[in-house]
Design a protein that fits this description.
Elements (H helix, E strand, L loop, with lengths): L9 H10 L25
């Protein structure tokens, strides 16, 4: 099985986990320039 890298949003990741019926592995790697360093720290 060939591994394909794809960036996911949190929503997409949650949907994948909820659909998953067997064992799975989630590997989180540091992002490149597109990574939002302020993610999750925004103010209203």
């Amino acid at each position: 099985m060939e591994e394909i890298a794809k960036e996911l949003t949190v929503k997409e990741l949650l949907e994948l986990v909820q659909r998953q019926e067997g064992e799975f592995i989630i590997r989180i790697e540091p992002g490149g320039e597109e990574t939002n360093a302020g993610a999750g720290t925004g103010t209203l």
